[in-house]
Amino acid sequence: MAAGQPYGQGARVWIPDCVHVWRAAEITQGYEEGDSVLHLRLEDGSPLVYPLGSQLPPLCNPECLLGKDDLVALSHLHEPAVLHSLRVRFLEANAIYTYCGIILVAINPYKPLPIYEEEVIYAYSGREMGDMDPHIFALAEEAYRQMVRFGKNQSLIISGESGAGKTASAKYAMRYFTAVGGGLGDSSMEEKVLASSPVMEAFGNAKTTRNDNSSRFGKYIEIGFSHARVMGATIKTYLLEKSRVTFQAKAERNYHIFYQLCASASLPELQGLGLRGAETFYYTQQGRCSAGTDDASDLDSTRHAFSLLGVPEADQLELFAVLAAILHLGNVTIRGRDRHGDGCVVEPNNEALGLFCALLGIEEAQVTRWLCHRKLVTAGETYVKPLTRQQALDSRDALAKHMYGQVFRWMTSRVNRALRSPEGHHTSIGILDIYGFEMFDLNSFEQFCINYANEKLQQLFNLHVFKLEQEEYVAEEIPWVFIDFCDNQPCIELIEGRLGVLDLLNEECKMPQGSDGSWAQKLYQTHVGSSHFQKPKRPTDAFVVCHFAGKVEYQCNGFVEKNRDTVPEELVGLLRASKKSALLTELFLEDGDGPTSRRSSGPRSSRPSRRSMPGTQKSKKSISSQFKSSLQRLMETLGSTTPHYVRCIKPNDSKLPFVFDSRRAVEQLRACGVLETIRISAAGYPSRWTYQEFFERYRALLSREELVGADAKQSCSLALERLLQDPSTYRCGKSKVFFRAGQVAFLEELRCRRLRAACTLLQRHLRGWLARRRFGRIRAAALCLQRHARGMLARRLTAELRRSRAAVVLQKNVRMALARRSYLRVRRAALTIQAFSRGMFARRLYHQMVQHQKAVVLQAAVRGWLVRRRYSRLRGAVLYLQCCYRRARARRELRRLRAEARSVEHYKQLHKGMEIKVMQLQRRLDEQAQEKQQLAEQLSALNAAHAEEVQRLREEMRGLREDAAHDAQVQRLQERLAELERHSAESRLAQEVEELRQRLAEVEAVKLHLGEERDALIQRTLEQSQDLEEQHRRAARESRGLQQELEEERARYQSLVQEYARLEQGYENLRDEVAFHRQSTLRRSPSSESFLGSESSYLSSMSTAPSRDGSDLQAEGLEERWQPPPEVPQPPHPMGDPKPNSGVGQDPFEKAYLLLLGQLNAVTEELARTREELRRSKASAEHEERKPLDFLKRRNIAEMLGLGRSPEKAAGDDLKHAYDAVQVANKLLVSQLQEEKQHHEEEVEGLHLDIRSLKQLSQQQAALIQDLQRHQGQEGLQHHVVRLKEENWELSQKLEKQERTTMKLQKQLRAYTKQIQEFTAMKKEATTPGQELAASPIVPSPSGLPQAMLVWRLEDEGRIIKAIITDYRPQSSPGALPELPAYVLFLCIRHADHCHDEPRACSLLDAAINAIKRIMKKHSDDFDVVALWLANACRLLNCLRQYGRDESCHQGNTAQQNEHRLHNLDPQGPCRSLGALAVQLYQQLVRTAEKRLKPMIVAAMLESETIQGLSSSCPPAHRRSSTPTAHTLPELLQQLGSFHQALELHGLPPAVGHQLLRQLLFLISGTTLNYLLLRKDACSWSCGIQLRYNISQVEQWLRAQGLQQSGAREMLEPLVQAAQLLQVKKATEEDAGAICSLCTVLTPQQVVKILRAYTPTAGLEERVSPALISSVERRLQEQQAEGSGQLLVDTSHLFPVHLPFIPSPLHLDELCIPDSVDLAFLVRL
User: Fold this and answer.
1) What does each C-alpha distance from 1063 to 1129, 1159, 1281 come to in angstroms?
2) Which pTM value belongs to this model?
């Protein structure tokens, strides 16, 4: 495969992202060698050009591997693939557990999940690790199984940061181990182991900003086992965070125990501790954090756990006093002596100091002194040095931390003492709950120690991973190549090696003036050249260590002081000297304290303290040295075990449920070593498939020659050589084929292409065949349709022609009449229009002519005026031109004349004509003046004439305008007249139309009113009927509730019967032991043996005899019946009633036992009567419920209303008649409704009375149940001694008591035997041989008919029981009835009834019941034996009912059978005893069948492949075992068939057999559904098909056996719906609605779990979207608001059994008893 081939177009890759860490993208342009960029398209559709660096981006895995439960099974193993798989499983499937090789990754959901119930524990118990979904229980089961199988110690290493769920995982693992390996002894060890958790959490856990219940210490819990049973446990703790006692950051709290004590300060026993609210103490109020839990109830849990662990109440109170003293110590106030701070003093009269000293029993003055001073010891003298205020506060806090550390150490030792087993253990499983890698902004000494421990654990983890990889490769004979990995040994050497960090720290602590700064300088000088050590760039006292999970910078401040763990020895000496309590002495007398220091109480007698003396200072180990040594021991312990790793991941910092922060998750994955495991696996061959799995998965890629071969290994090898040309990409082992990373994805791509091509070919041929078949069908259908259509069209054409001819004739006449009417109407209209039009046109022409004439006159005047004006303008212009021209001529002439005038001649000439010219000019001026005057006069005349003309023209214009307005008004009036005429006609028509409309509206109003009345009546009727139905539904619900209570009462009764059977079994065991002692001390004669059997049977009969009217009368009756006989024998009873046991005595214990049994039977009888009354009440309620429903069925509302036809077709008179009819019907309906309402109210009142009576009965029943439980508790107390004797036989005290009881009983037995022998001898002397049967005289029958009975004597009871029960074998009597023992017993009971001997009948019946119980104890696993005696118990019970006093059971009897009825015996007591026995036998039968079916169910229903080829549709799981299934579906059906055949063979009533089958199918359905919910690989389409087919096979078996009406099919309905859910489409909202309508029996939790675990088929299906899952969950919760919230089915639930009455068709006198049954000693009448 070429290097660039995986990066072709369409391939998906991962690119880095700043928010989501990694982001998926699709390649849009194939990558070629040498390209510097990749062209990508992101998920949102945006393009991206991604620059390539030194390597290509990682590839995405194929869809078929998405969400795998084992990350190692991924084809491409890298960080983004791991992160994406975890995100998909966590968010979409809500799966918090995922395998990663040998690691179980657990993500904290921050939400309680229903996956830790007891059913889940039992589901994972005994299963292989890969058979079920990843779970903490699966890992625990793997460790437990390896421990049991190989006998080697195991360990669970649980790590993670604070808030990741480490403590919860450890508790679940402990719970699993204690459940599967329950402890021995009376006080179970598992309860103590579980009780250690609340104690350790109270003292070692606190609330932090990251976790509300954070463990502030590491612990290793070692659970010891012996023969796979829990024997004890040991807890080791590491590095308690003592600094939290004196300081808490904001939003954090101190340890839980302090707040629990403060919340419970009001308790009487804590009144003397001076406690108040937590906000009043300095050590508990610094974080200012409100409590999120109930601290008071938590203290109750802590004290209860202490009690379970054996800590006395006094020690608990002393411990609480020490804790209260620590709180008071924090409130001690110290102030400086002056401003310079040279000294300090404690404030006088300090209440907190007084309480501290009073609680610890020390002197207040001494404490005040040594809080403010320190003792210094030199070679010869002792000095007392005052302390500054800060030093005193530090000393106070150091004392508080030391005290709490000692308390925690003492508490751990007491827990270990309680969990320690005296017998020891052979193997163990350790659970290490330790802090994960921590890297904060400020890291100190605690973080350094934590990370040091994680370095050691990571080294152990790496070695273990390589060891497993090497073992796998060696086992498969694959060449092992060493893989280079990041070894952290240099980092560990840096920390713990010679001159390492810890070595230099211890050396600095030994220096008197050692400080953090000098220690830091030594680190810089020593390790500056190390690759794992760095010096920070900024000048601070800090250093950087390169851990395997990253670089961490540690602040040196506080390292030296915390490592020294300085304790004020003077104050500790005061505590040692305290005589207040023994607890203080035990707390502070630790290893290393000499006797002198223990006795010292003052400064004179105390020796130099450990802090002061150099020698002692050297002897004390530092905190780092202690931690290093304990860590080394822990590594040795873990190295000697087989480790199993759990890595807890915190998905977000906000503690939100199911929110995944990718950045936080990647940080933790890198820190916990998961990615290192992935890298190691990817370096080798991570993908590993067996040859059979590879052959089934990639069968489509194999050629024909490769498929022919019989050897799967050879076929796979040939196929791999052809498909993967590079042999280095895979290796073939002995049983598996190993692939390099990415090869499975390549094979999946090839398989997808081949399947797609095959699907295309199949679709092409199938679509062609379907198209041809469809075309043929369509063509045949078209021809048939054409033939019928043409005939129909021809007939339709003929009818159409006939109708057309008739229509033409009709149309001709109609059209003629219509045309004539229209013509006449048009003619009249035309004439009218013509008349008006002609007048209008004439007037219009006249007006036009007048307007024309006036326009002509106006035009003439205007035109003349215009011409004149034009003339005037032209004349004026001409004159102006002439003037201008003449002026120019004159000027030229003037210039010429001036020139001439200058000459003499000119002047002379000028003067000649001057006078003449002057005169001419004067005359001319006068003429011009006259002419001007004339022109002025003419102009004024013209102006006057023009003005008159203009005035005249204006008047004419005004007149013309008035004429035009008058003409327009006339025209308008004419138009108005025409319009009025037209409107008058229209108004008449409109008036007529309006009248018609009004009439129609009135008719419509009447019709609407009738319709409203009808609707109102219908609505009232419907409302009343709905109210009636609602009331009856409520009555039905109450009836169903009472029925359910009856079923629950029946179930409780059967459980009481079962408990009663267990108690009787214990009593029987005790009686058997007494009988054994009798046999060992006496030699029985035949008479004594008969007596012993009689006595035993009579004792048992008295245990089940019916009670009398009261317990006192019953006790008196019992005492009278058990009085010893007189010395003189009494004559026989007149009626032949023998009293063989009248001389037998009884001890008080047996009297009390019989008295309690009688009370139990009395309560049982009362319960039976209550059940019968409840049944009768239920029957009457059902009868009353049916009445109104029958009325609604008989009545038809539409018929009562008489509205058969549509109201729209009624008009006129018809509507009126309909209205009258409706009114009559309404009156009738109202009267009927009133009658029905009254009848309904009477019925409802009756129902309410019945309901109240039923409620009273239920209250009485509850009171009876309480009484029964009280009597049962009394009976349990009486039998407690016997039960302790059976369980604790090894205890010598009980043995001695039992021996004394046995000796006493033996003495009484000897006395009783002697008395009976004397009585028997006297009786034989008094009777004749012919009166042998006088003990059982026969009363002759009045009818003389055969009595159908067996004559027997009391001495024959043991022989009868032995013949028909103990030694009875149905195989020895092939022709006998299956219920022969029941019939024989009933015949014997009939004889006792005939003799009026009820005690003898009860004795025989009780002896038979005890014998059947003994057989059941011996053959409890034999289904045939249990079924045989269940059938006989039911038959005997039915015989007692059939021939008893209940008249309802005599209806099917014949006359001869009625003559065989019991006359003297009351069968109620025997019926109750037999009913209880039948219930016990039925439950035993169910347990026997379940024991055989349980190993077969999962393998047959889920794992067996009855449809070949479906398993190849989904890839096999990485851890799934490849072994074939142990059981198949035919085997399961065969087993069910054998059960059914055995039931029919032994004659069990069919109704009981059907109930048993329902119970077994409920077990099959529930078990299969539980495993389906817990296995993600089973939630796929192919598994749904397979499961549905298997269910259909079961249904087919039911039909073949004729059991389809038995109700067993309904038990499979949840499984059917689960299979259908796996098959339906799951994409749209419509699909969500279909899913909700489909899943009616499954709970919402089950449906959501299946949808989230659903695995789609690769290339054919899409994953189920979270939006669809949310929609389905919301709809189902709305549908099933009151439904059960249970995820798994409770398969241990037993349905209450109902024993029906089935009369026997056999006549008793026709019973045939074979000779093989040894009953010859009985005489048959």
Assistant:
1) 37, 15, 12
2) 0.60
